[in-house]
Amino acid sequence: MILVGTSGWQYKDWRGRFYPMRLPQRLWLEHYAERFGAVEANGAFYRLPERDTFADWRARTPRDFRVAVKMSRYLTHVKRLREPAEPVARFMGRAEALGEKLGPVLVQLPPNLQIDLDALDETLRQFPRGVRVAVEPRHPSWWTPATRRLLERRGAALCWADRRSRPLTPRWRTTDFGYLRLHEGRASPWPHYGRDALGSWVRRLDETFGDDDAYLFLNNDQGGAAVGDAMTAARVAGRREQKRSGRH
Questions:
Q1: Does residue 3 contact residue 66 with C-beta atoms inside 8 Å?
Q2: pLDDT at residue 243, rounded to an integer
Q3: What is d(CA 153, CA 238) in angstroms, rounded to the nearest whole number?
Q4: What sign does the CA torsion over 35, 199, 39, 37 have?
Q5: Is the pLDDT of residue 248 over 60?
Q6: How confident is the model at residue 240 (pLDDT cuts 50, 70, 90)?
Q7: What is the tens place of the pLDDT at every residue in 62-72?
Q8: Cis ω on the peptide bond leading into residue 128 (within 30° of 0)?
Q9: Alpha-carbon distance 94 to 70, whole Å?
Q10: What is this structure's pTM?
Q11: 2-247: CATH homologous superfamily?
């Protein structure tokens, strides 16, 4: 099953494009969650919300909705994965208030952080059993068989990523779920993705993960591109799921 959404939902330029003009911002999450199955709370990367905020998101969304949460930059960009126990415990002590609606935790590494398997291994060890973790390395030194083996051993997903229809990562399957972030498309107007590009990514996720969960998040939020592309991707994924169900 492919769960489609966007990286964040509180963008002012989505008013009038996605959110009705008269809809109060305090009701935007409900409007969003009626139309998508998941969201990536990327604001947590910059400022970790209080536990009550996560609990509020849980209360305001449908039972089957999922909230992926981007790990605080304090661990990834300030500490650079050093001494991860306290940052992970503090993060999980708040995010776990989402309960069953907690989706994967995204650990995005700095572009200049070169491969350090010991640091990544120690970081992944800190997450409670049962919490899904996706790792988004961004330095090419990480693309080694040893990295793949580590992710497989720890049950963490490699986050696939794309910019301008060029894959930024190998398309490894390392665990029982997938995670894809689309950063910038090549269609007009910028930074949209074209329907064919979105369809290609949906197909790749489907072929790689089959009946297992896969998350697809649009991160090209400028000018409302992400939410429009996400609606297109959700329709494509829905039709593919219907065809799959018809074959069973």
A1: yes
A2: 79
A3: 32
A4: positive
A5: no
A6: confident
A7: 999 999 999 99
A8: no
A9: 13
A10: 0.95
A11: Protein of unknown function UPF0759 (3.20.20.410)
